[in-house]
């Protein structure tokens, strides 16, 4: 055991925040890409990986659903991080000094109202924590970063304005990935089962495949489709349902799904987070 948890991004990224929230006793290991974070676990440099899958404002994280099935890792937990965006500047600067703000393009788009109100121009950075590091290193008192308070602590920046996001409920959902699956029943808010599948090439296959969940009273909280290997005729679906595969009604629904589909793969069985409510 390395007692490390891998994430994509610089120290101070929101994924780093998710690691500290879910596993405060583990060392967070920054990685350049999602693939690098997955490989860190597969190679034994880390025990777990923390991967973002969707944001309440901007939807799913690009590429992550195609990475999950072929990663070889299993989902063992989910974590929700409230994305509080802060304007971070060099020590001693004031909000009135700032003419430009740097961050990832997604975060820049989430603070349009604040930036417009204060006549602050946007600079696109590689990512949120990386922008905080760059602002700290360059030492320009007129340029600030949009990032987490954790990033401000790490790179020695002051919080000039706190929680400036346009959407007050802006939240990102993360999945905690492990080399080993855990099908044990745990948690206080029920279980979630995540899986991927492809439908058979027959008329109304998707309708028939999903019918078992409706007739057995299983709540499907997510269903997303994406192309496989760039083909317009090969579509894979990612789904989350409430329940455990050993629940009688879930088992019946999965049996019916199996009849109308190919390549059904369970990605994980894990406790629903309290934040789902």
UniProtKB/TrEMBL annotation:
Pfam families, per the entry: PDT
Protein name according to UniProt: prephenate dehydratase
Annotated coiled-coil segments of the chain: none
GO BP terms: L-phenylalanine biosynthetic process
Entry EC number(s): 4.2.1.51
Catalytic activity: prephenate + H(+) = 3-phenylpyruvate + CO2 + H2O
Presence of keyword Lyase: yes
InterPro entries per the UniProt record, alphabetical: ACT-like_dom_sf (IPR045865), ACT_dom (IPR002912), Preph_deHydtase (IPR001086), Preph_deHydtase_CS (IPR018528)
Protein's gene: pheA
Any one Gene Ontology molecular-function term assigned to this protein's record: prephenate dehydratase activity
EC top class named in words: lyase
Keywords, in A-Z order: Amino-acid biosynthesis, Aromatic amino acid biosynthesis, Lyase, Phenylalanine biosynthesis
Location of the ACT domain: 194-271
Species: Pseudodonghicola xiamenensis
Pathway stated in the Swiss-Prot or TrEMBL entry: Amino-acid biosynthesis; L-phenylalanine biosynthesis; phenylpyruvate from prephenate: step 1/1
GO cellular component, one term: cytoplasm
Occurrences of domain Prephenate dehydratase (ranges): 4-179
């Amino acid at each position: 055991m390395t007692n490390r948890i891998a994430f994509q991004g610089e120290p101070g990224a929101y994924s780093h925040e998710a690691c500290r929230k879910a596993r405060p006793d583990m060392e967070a290991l920054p990685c350049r890409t999602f693939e690098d974070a997955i490989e860190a676990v597969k190679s034994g440099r880390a025990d777990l990986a923390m991967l973002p899958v969707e944001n309440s404002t901007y939807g799913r994280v690009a590429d992550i659903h195609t990475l999950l099935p072929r990663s070889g890792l299993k989902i063992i937990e989910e974590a929700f991080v409230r994305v509080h965006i802060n304007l971070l500047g060099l020590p001693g600067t004031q909000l009135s000094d700032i003419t430009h703000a740097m961050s990832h393009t997604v975060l820049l788009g989430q603070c349009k109202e604040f930036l417009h109100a204060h006549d602050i121009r946007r600079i696109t950075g590689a990512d949120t924590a990386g922008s905080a590091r760059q602002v700290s290193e360059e030492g320009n008192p007129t340029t600030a970063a949009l990032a987490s308070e954790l990033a401000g602590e790490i790179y020695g920046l002051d919080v000039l304005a706190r929680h400036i996001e346009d959407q007050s409920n802006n939240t990102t959902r993360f999945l905690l990935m492990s080399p080993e699956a855990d099908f044990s029943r745990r948690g206080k808010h029920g279980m979630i089962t995540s899986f991927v599948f492809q439908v058979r090439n027959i008329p109304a296959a998707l309708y028939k495949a999903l019918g078992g969940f409706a007739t057995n009273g299983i709540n499907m909280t997510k269903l997303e489709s994406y192309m496989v290997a760039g083909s317009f005729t090969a579509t894979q679906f990612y789904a989350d349902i409430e329940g455990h595969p050993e629940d009688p009604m879930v088992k019946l629904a999965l049996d019916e799904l199996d009849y109308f589909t190919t390549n059904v793969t369970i990605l994980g069985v894990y406790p629903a987070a309290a934040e789902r409510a």
